[in-house]
Amino acid sequence: MTVKRKTITLEVELLDKVNRIRKKEGRSFSNMVQRIITEWLDELYAPET
């Protein structure tokens, strides 16, 4: 069984996105990072159409 590994790099663009959403929605930084990573993982592992 071969497991594909994918990496996610926290870049300035991501951190800016997190801060904008955090300010807009009033959520904590860690909650926003968790939300964005969850969305990315959903996109990365979504079945291809």
From TrEMBL:
Domain Ribbon-helix-helix protein CopG: 7-43
GO BP term, example: regulation of DNA-templated transcription
Name of the molecule in the record: Ribbon-helix-helix protein CopG domain-containing protein
